[in-house]
Design brief:
Bound molecules: adenosine-5'-triphosphate
Largest sheet: 6 strands, mixed
Number of helices: 10
Number of strands: 10
CATH topology of the domain at 72-78 and 89-156 and 169-186: Rossmann fold
Strand order of the largest sheet: 6-7-8-3-9-10
Distance between the termini: 30 Å
Strand content: 25-35%
CATH class of the domain at 72-78 and 89-156 and 169-186: Alpha Beta
Mean pLDDT: 91
Low-confidence stretches: none
Shape: globular
Helix content: 25-40%
Order of helices and strands: EEEHEEHEHHHHEHEHEEHH
CATH superfamily of the domain at 72-78 and 89-156 and 169-186: P-loop containing nucleotide triphosphate hydrolases
Oligomer: single chain
């Protein structure tokens, strides 16, 4: 089954069209990257899928259901987003426990105590962090909380917006390994924005390369080994990354 399908999606902020005709499919269980320079519209695509960029046209389907405009609670339990900045994305005056319990309350899900304990275990956070506030956690711990918050509703699809780029290099590797393990354990589908080609090689099967709001090529991540990209822009992005990125660098 197709987890995410975009057909001719245009996305605008006011009068400015940011994304032009985005079309791609992500299979269920696949990990797919959106890559390209800063400002090329990668995050904007994730936001439109998540309902955070209201001005779009075209078709967005998630798990076989057409995505409407705006917030959709039923949709939230199937598809969740993790943001780049774990400092900004967690409310400063809410404990980890309340951050994790809130989505369960909103969706009327019981057995909350067990679910919170289990999700902390799943993301590798000790139970003693449960009643702490974000400022009492490291950047990596905060990102684990953000991942736990996304996973607590047991979604099938995760939208990951540069989930490690705000973190120290050693912590980046920990979080990438965590995301990789969770995907394997739970059969999740990932759509991931990154500007880091080694991360694509480590995490993803395929990538769409974006330039100025347009997808110029969809390539398997094996192209990172030999540079076999078809589009000149993709080739220049690959060359600028130093070619054949050393995937061991991040693990
Ligand atoms: N809320 C907004 N209002 C107006 N313009 C926006 C808004 N958010 C993003 N943009 C513009 O949309 C364009 C694409 O931004 P987007 O964040 O999607 O790029 P990106 O490829 O994800 O880059 P980055 O890697 O820097 O996040 C940029 O020119 C940006 O200035």
């Amino acid at each position: 089954m197709t987890a995410i399908s975009l057909r001719n999606v245009d996305i605008s902020y006011g009068d400015t069209k940011i994304v032009h005709g985005a079309t791609f499919d992500v299979a269920e269980g696949e990990s797919f990257a959106l890559v390209g320079e800063s400002g090329s519209g990668k995050s904007t695509i994730l936001k439109a899928i998540a309902g955070l960029a209201p001005e779009w046209t075209g078709d967005i389907d998630v798990l076989g259901q057409s995505r409407g405009h705006g917030v959709d609670y039923r949709f939230a339990s199937r598809c969740q987003m993790v943001f780049q900045d774990p400092y900004g994305s967690l409310h400063p005056r809410k404990t980890v426990d309340s951050v994790l319990t809130e989505p369960l309350k909103i969706h009327g899900i019981g057995n909350r105590d067990t679910r919170v304990k289990d999700i902390l275990n799943a993301v590798g956070l000790d139970q003693r962090f449960r009643f702490r506030f974000p400022h009492q956690l490291s950047g990596g711990q905060r990102q684990r909380v953000a991942i736990a918050r996304a996973l607590i509703l047991e979604p099938r699809v995760m939208l990951l917006d540069e989930p490690t780029s705000a973190l120290d290099v050693s912590v980046q590797a920990e979080i990438l390994n965590l995301l990789k393990r969770l995907r394997a354990e739970q059969g999740l589908t990932y759509l991931m924005v990154t500007h880091n080609l080694p991360v694509v090689g480590f995490m993803c099967e395929r990538m769409a390369i974006m330039n100025k709001g347009r997808i110029v090529e969809i390539a398997p991540s094996t192209a990172l080994h030999d540079g076999s990209f078809g589009d000149p822009y993709s080739q220049s992005l690959y060359a600028a990354s130093g070619g054949n990125p050393d995937l061991k660098e991040i693990v």
